[in-house]
Amino acid sequence: MATIQSVLGPISTDQLGVTLTHEHVLCASAGIQQVFPEYVNRPQVIEDGVAALATAKAEGLGAFVDLTPMDLGRDIRLLEEVSRRSGVHLIACTGIWRDIPRVFWGESPDTVARLFIREIEEGIEGTGIRAGIIKVANDQEGVTPEGEIILRAAARAQKATGVPISTHSWAPGRVGEQQVRIFREEGVDLDRVCIGHSNDTTDTDYLLGLLRQGVWVGLDRNPGGTMPGTPDWEGRTVTTKKLMDAGYTHRIMVSHDAPITILIAPPEQRALRKERNPDGISFIFRRVIPRLKELGATEADIHRLFVENPRRYFEGGE
Ligand SMILES: [Zn+2]
Q1: How many alpha carbons fall within 13 Å on the CB side of residue 23?
Q2: Are 133 and 67 in contact (CB under 8 A)?
């Protein structure tokens, strides 16, 4: 048991319960609410967030890890309100997503790490609400020079604070391997790292290779399928079961990455997402878990995936 920071203050890891480890209440852009407030219907975003989390809570959800850093439009007071009104523990993040601010492109990792460490140890934007996890992102282009600065900053902040790192990666391009290489160079304990979006591929050789290196693997895109060349949810679920059968039930985490409000996708794509997944962040409870059980997963396996693994990931130290 350990103490971690939720947006409503410290909680013990045994309070987390069933945890979705890669989600978003709102995806937007840094500063957009300040300069173009009418673009973001903030009261509606809050209502939709509360409704989705309360619904998922009634189906068993205990905690929601919101991996929205500043460049993805993090609104820390909004997350606080959604958590308070829904009754679901919410863990917020520091770090940087794919819109790396230009000011950091030539910056030293140590300087960027100072921001991450402050958000973890003191709080975000003067609120005193502390980040419980570090988010980083590298996509189809792999680890770019500016992306590498952010990865190294995240590694140093991880070592300074002990909180875990969760990545966005492009699994079809094996970008998780590039991320692991940088974390290794920085001397990060790979038990504190989750390579996310790994179920955008069904290549179990790649996934087992990551697991053998000692990282957690995030099978955290469900139903997914909006990116060309990525598997549908059934293919993803079969891949999850294959990793379980290979002996890694204790090292994988399953989540949706289905933002409750997404302003970074064009309106047609938002409609398509809703059509493809009317269940939102209840999709795993309604579709994936029953399917895993059909494939032979036991109640103990499910408990391990959604309760024990997130708890151990946040606690650190096997
Ligand atoms: Zn995400």
Answers
A1: 28
A2: yes
Say how far residue 274 (Cα) sits from the centre of its chain: 20
* Architecture, CATH, for domain 4-8+15-315: Alpha-Beta Barrel (3.20)
pLDDT, one tens digit per residue, over 210-263 is 999 999 999 999 998 778 889 999 999 999 999 999 999 999 999 999 999 999
Question: pTM of this prediction?
Answer: 0.98
Q: What is the per-residue pLDDT across 34-61, written as a single tens digit (0 to 9) for each?
A: 999 999 999 999 999 999 999 999 999 9
> Residue ranges per domain, the chain?
4-8+15-315
Residue 4, phi-psi category: left (phi > 0), alpha (psi -120 to 50), beta (remainder): beta
- C-alpha 49 to ligand 1 mean position (Å): 15
C-alpha of residue 196 to centroid of ligand 1, in Å: 9
Residue 72 CA, ligand 1 centroid: distance in Å: 9
DSSP 3-state of 106: coil
Q: What is the pLDDT of residues 98-127, one digit of tens each?
A: 999 999 999 999 999 999 999 999 999 999
Ligand 1 mean position, distance from CA 27 (Å): 9
